[in-house]
Structures are given as structure tokens and as C-alpha cells.
Amino acid sequence: MAINRTTAHAIILWLMAALLIAAGVFLSQQAVLDRNWLARAGCLIVILGIWSGVGGLIEVRLARKTLEIRRRLSAARNRYRYRHNLEERDQRLTELNERYDKRLAAHADRLGFSFGLLEGSLLVLGTLVWGFGDLLKFIIE
Length: 141
Prior knowledge:
Radius of gyration: 24 Å
Largest sheet: none
Strand content: under 5%
Structural class: mainly alpha
Helix content: over 70%
Shape: rod-shaped
Oligomer: single chain
Number of strands: 0
Order of helices and strands: HHHH
Number of helices: 4
């Protein structure tokens, strides 16, 4: 089973979130400077969630540009290949545009869903840890 780039990105972000929570718990228990380290870890997890969302937007935009370049190259090849048969050329270009539009929509939906789910879950987790992390001092004492 191969891990694609989106899955690897999600795994890395969740590992980073887990490490931040562990570090926050440890530093809160050790009372380094104060006991609010878990709340600070929650803040950093929220930043990871926002970073994930921005990364998703960039990746969707790059995918769209890449598919647009491929579409233009294929269209140019088809125009040259069928330059003497205008009816065939127009039919091939229509099929090409439909195929690329479907690929773009499917790719954008897949990326949007996976990044939206990752971003949302990190934001919820980070907000809960950030909002209630300071209560850990009452549990530890």
C-alpha cells in the first residue's frame, strides 16, 4: 500500500500535534516557568491547522495550473495533428476539454475534502487543548 503525499502530510501533522501535546504535558508537570504549557501547545496545534489549510489551497492551485498546462499542450498537439480535418479537430478538442474538466473537478474535490478534514480536526483539537489546557494544573496538583 503506497502512501500518497496528502496522507503523508496528514500523518506528519498529527505526529507534530501529538508531540506538542506530550511536550505541553511534560513541561506543565515540571512547572517550567509556569503550568500553562499545554495551553501553549494547543495554540501551536491551531497554527498547524491553519498552516495545513493554507498548504491545501496552494496545492489545489498548483494542481489546477499543472492540469491547465497539460490541457494546453494536448490541445496544441491535437490542433497540429488534425489541422487538415477541422471537424475531427473540433471533436477531439471538445473531448479533451471535457476530460480535463472532469479530472480537475475530481482532483480539487479529493484535495479539498482531505485538507478540509485535516484542517478542521487540527483546529478543533488545538482549540480544545488551548482552551482547557490550563485546567491541567488542577489535575496534576
